[in-house]
Amino acid sequence: MKKMFPLRVEGHQTPRVIEQIKNDVRKYVKRERKKKLPEGADFWDFNCRVGQAEAIAENKHVEELTKAIDETVASGAEAVYIEILAKPGHRTGGKAKPPSDV
To answer: Which ranges in the chain belong to alpha helices (H)?
Structure first.
């Protein structure tokens, strides 16, 4: 998903528009996570960018998207650019070590 969302929509209150944007983002991430994983992948990871425009969008973790949208709105932007690209992820690290008897 690469999309520019306008914040000022005629006939709609701005707080409702912002909530709709956040809802669209949540639905998209949920839909992408339901897709079948490729062989050898453990989970769906996401490359996310949020900002006032594509050129100045900052990298964010998928869990920080709603907060980043709020920050962009608070900065007085007229629109929010959101980019979310799904990619297969691989877990790093091993099993937890059992407690040692000291």
So the answer is: 14-33, 65-74
